[in-house]
Specification:
About 30% of the residues lie in helices and about 30% in strands. By secondary structure, it is α/β, with parallel strands linked by helices. Helix 1 packs across helix 3 and helix 1 runs parallel beside helix 8. The longest helix has 17 residues. The termini are far apart.
Amino acid sequence: MEDSETLSALLDRRASEVPDSLALVTSDGQTVSYAELERLSRRVAAWLTAQGLTNGDRVAVWLVNRLEWIALLYGASRVGVGIVAVNTRYRGTELQHILSRSGASMLVLDAQFRKIDFLSLLQDVNPDSVPDLSRIALLGWEELQPDTILGRKVVRFSLSDLSDGEAAQSVSAPDDLAVLFSTSGTTKLPKLVMHTQRTLSSHTGNLSRAFGFAEDGARLLGALPLCGVFGLNPVLAALAGGATVYLMEAFDGKEAVELIKKHSITHAFGSDEMFRRILESATEEKPMPAARIVGFAALQAGASELARDAWSRGVPMTGMYGASEVNALFSKQPDHLPLDEQIKAGGVPVSPEAHVRIRDVETGELLPAGKNGIIEIRAPSNFTGYWNDPDATAKAIDAEGFYSTGDMGMLREDGSFVYEARIDDAMRLSGFLVNPGEVEDVLKEIEGVEDAQVIAVTLEGKMRSAAFIIPAPGASPDPDQVIAETGRLMAAFKVPARVWVVDQFPVTESANGMKIQRGQLRKMAAERLEKEKY
């Protein structure tokens, strides 16, 4: 199979092979065959052309997981129009930044979804800040029928209204922009990650083969938002392989359990939080009896314990690695590893052409297996740069084409790798680079400690570790005793100099779930240390 092509070409091939096979099932019960999806994509391409969009233009998509999202992506692929994937959790400032930075000439949105009033949020955008935005395509037109929004012409977008027609002569090429994804920063406005038709289609083909999406009976639970690589990549891979995708507009634990049970879901990917809610909502001891591959990302504390529990209930949660810059599901831990190694993030790249190496943080030298440093990646799935940000691109991608991930990890002897932490979260203690998770695991073994988060602080001019702990139900752990017990279990330079008891950790929403705000933990630690002076 030729993967270095366009996304629409991958769809066309699959539609020609299995036209009547079921491609998509939406939350409202819509069923779409591969032939129907191909036909929809051609109609969308014609509609985009009729709206005046041509090769090189960009359309911002601010929708939950709907059929329209998928149809727009494949339709835009046909005419070389790039999709700007807008997180539905974004509000005024972030939306304005994305629209302004991307230069999108059209925004597609629904008027409202559940309690989210997208039209009201759109009013927070300063019209003068988005000069390239010429029109707004609105779902839910029947009730509202506005002529203009933000002073821009409003057009109707309805798949049921589209008719067959020939798109303009603009032809998409493998190196055309396919999607702009947003980085998931918590302290800065996001950068826009550029992926071409080639980088996405190449990764799509590799994923489809590596994860067995062409095998009989393959069914994917499409639970994560399509606006991020973690949600979109598996959906594209499943469709490239001829599997059926059960698309959820928004994740709900009970609904997911019903879909898994009713449709014998074989593939699922998500955050630890997502699978925690699935396991808590399931009444059966074995909630995913047909599971073949269940990949997860650890975004919160306690992920290892959750994964072990999942395995005991027949849910084979396996560690993977991904990022917007290299695509999601970039690698998967080998099945032959012991369980404790299988549930770590990292693994073997799905692309045989991918290269992963580790560079020393201080010396810049490349490191052998077993030594931790910064993970660098060169692969066909690598992004082509940050949109309109050459300085950031030059800092991230070196002359050899390796992307410096900003993640700390190490190679194994078998060639696989392990992700340990963000390099900003790693602690330099007594000259050693220490993964905070190493200390957290020890703390959670101490009686009375339910959960722990460890950060680095400066005490008397020296870098030391410090911990925030959540007590176990009914327990009241004494910080001094916790420190003393930790000292008996690990090297002295790793032992927290301070332990603070809290009810919960600060978190923030991302496209894939809730993430612990380690930056906020560092701020809390600084405030507590400052109070000690008085």
